[in-house]
Write a structure and sequence with these properties.
- Chains A, B: Pfam families: ADH_N, ADH_zinc_N.
- Chains A, B: It comes from Streptodolium elevatio.
- Chains A, B: InterPro entries: ADH-like_C, ADH-like_N, GroES-like_sf, NAD(P)-bd_dom_sf.
- The structure is a homodimer.
- The first copy, chain A, is an alpha/beta fold.
- The first copy, chain A, has twelve helices and 18 strands.
- In chain A, strands 3, 5, 6, 9, 10, 17 and 18 form a seven-stranded mixed beta sheet that branches. Chain A has a six-stranded parallel beta sheet with strand order 13-12-11-14-15-16, sandwiched between helices.
- In chain A, helix 5 packs across helix 6, helix 5 crosses helix 11 and helix 8 packs parallel to helix 9.
- Chain A is globular and about 60 Å long.
- At the A-B interface, strand 15, helix 10 and strand 16 of A face strand 15, helix 10 and strand 16 of B.
């Protein structure tokens, strides 16, 4: 089969690799219908996160089950399924506490020795607990498939950020970052009942999408000026809930500074760069909550909202390329020409 | 009147200063019956926190109201009262949200221009909202007075740390630091229903007191070895709730590393030294919550527990000196000869 690999920074290839196959009794094989490129994939692309030469890429995909191991009980070949960004055993203490991201038997697609989502097929460990079945008729609905694909990462991660920050009715919310996670966080904050949602970003098309998703104000300044603007929008206080959805030191400290005393910062951007402003956290009694999103745990909440039309995150995708041209997708996202690119094998 | 001042590191004096008096209509004057020295006072003592020459010291005191301004309605001269570590207006949005530590009209005793608790009397702004009345008959009960004095800071701060960390029935708790705040955090964690409480410290008398307050295990190692020991005590996982009650970088990172995925660190030690281990926080989805304790907000919860005998924090005091000898108290605490020293004017 064909799959995306990385050999060195900016050297993305589509290569022939061994076919995905059942190796453990709980495995399933999923033929990928749709995958996409994540902002965190760009860290590998740019060499900011180390990868071994030839390592697979991609942790977002949905597709059709083509084979199952003898212990798989809830899925059958032909089922349409979504995979969250990591597999998990479903039975450990962390999985039962809705923190599958801490599963000791878990892992993220594309880790050494595993298949990546940006390929023709994926071997899925612990298929019963990892995969979530989708309605069969979704397969013929392009918009719906796109929306469902966001359950793999960006929607679940944005939702986790909004939950972690304490977005709720009556709370003011700031979202730092206008990438796909930030936009999904806006949507999630709205879904959680927040009425005043400020997006911090600079890209006009993304800010427009943020507004469509529920943002009530946009702040295009950066750094101290952005913090000042958020405070002005909130009677001088800052927001109850800040969402850091960029993963940079500047975004983190902007999120902290834009939060009012007693508020919380939800962070889902992996730590990059210089340290947190801990003095500000301490003096203002601001809670820091989040981390790698337990996306699998949020699918049962989010899937019904997509299916019933309450939310439609599909517009986060603004481009599609075939698997063989995936290097173009990386380039377009790296230059911020595209927000998030779909891959069709 | 006499009051404690600091002129440079290690230069603690008791000097004649202008008498505390009513200056604003909401002020009260409190004649100090008991004060004490806090671990954070030692930062000023050692020159780690800047002070202006002649600045007052002490933020923990209880005493008797001797004068009130015309707008004070809930107190009368003769009332026995406890003051929390900071004054607050009781009417701002933060005070009404139980976060008086963020009151824009608030301040900490000993700040430039205010009286300190380590003196004969203190002018108390916003007396109605700042002070809490105590039963008159407590004045004749030495043990009870000592216990009540802990409401000024260490008990409320330890309780805030335990709450922030999520101490609760079924949760395992680690307390990093065997100072008075750490010991009070042990007591608070127990009060909140935690059954497994590990104290991390090295001082035998303090560990004994921790056990008396509810600790079920003690870890005397430091750094990685301490983390390993906590994990061994918790089935390899780490604790649900870690309390950082020392204010050092090492204590903070030990608290983080000793916490299990999805757990929380309650921090009440002001940030000192090198940065937080944010990667560990992120990867393990650990919440960081706390900050300057809103001690005033916790008095209504804690005072009745002291009065009905549910808790008795009075043993955190292991020495008493007269105001004129307060330099000895600083020295004894700085050398860890004393845990916490009472001051009687």
């Amino acid at each position: 089969m064909r799959a995306t690999t990385i050999h060195s920074p900016y050297d993305i290839r589509v290569e022939h690799v061994p076919d995905a196959s059942v190796r453990q009794p709980g495995d399933a094989v999923v033929q990928v219908l749709r995958a996409c490129v994540c902002g965190t994939d760009l860290w590998a692309y740019r060499g900011e996160s180390a990868r071994q030469p030839g390592q697979r890429l991609g942790h977002e995909f949905l597709g059709t089950v083509t084979d199952i191991g003898p212990e798989v009980t809830s899925l059958r070949p032909g089922d349409l399924v979504i995979a969250p960004l990591s597999w998990s055993d479903g039975s450990c203490v962390y999985c039962t506490e809705d923190l599958p991201s801490a599963c000791p038997n878990g892992g993220i697609w594309g880790a050494v020795g595993s298949d990546g989502g940006q390929g023709e097929a994926v071997r899925v460990p612990y298929a019963d607990s990892t995969l979530v079945q989708l309605p069969a008729d979704a397969a013929s609905d392009d918009r719906l498939l796109n929306a469902l694909l966001t359950l793999a990462d960006v929607l679940g991660t944005g939702y986790h950020a909004a939950l972690s920050a304490g977005a709720r009715p009556g709370a003011s919310v700031a979202v730092v970052g206008d990438g796909a996670v930030g936009l999904c966080a806006v949507m999630a904050a709205r879904m959680l009942g927040a009425e005043n949602i400020v997006i911090l970003g600079r890209h006009p098309a993304r800010l427009e999408l943020a507004q469509k998703f529920g943002a009530t104000a946009a702040v295009t300044e950066r750094g101290d000026a952005a913090v000042e603007a958020v405070r002005e929008l909130t009677g001088g206080h800052g927001v109850h809930a800040s969402i850091e959805a960029a993963g940079t030191a500047e975004a983190r400290n902007t999120a902290i500074a834009a939060t009012r005393p007693g508020g919380a910062v939800g962070w889902v951007g992996a730590p990059h760069g210089s340290p947190l402003d801990t003095a500000m956290l301490f003096i203002r009694s601001i809670t820091l909550r989040g981390g790698i999103a337990p996306v699998r745990a949020h699918i049962p909440t989010l899937l019904p909202r997509i299916l019933d039309g309450t939310i439609d995150p599909s517009p986060v995708f603004d481009g599609t390329v075939a698997l063989d041209a995936i290097a173009d997708a990386y380039q377009a996202m790296n230059t911020r020409t595209s927000l998030k690119v779909l891959i069709t094998p």
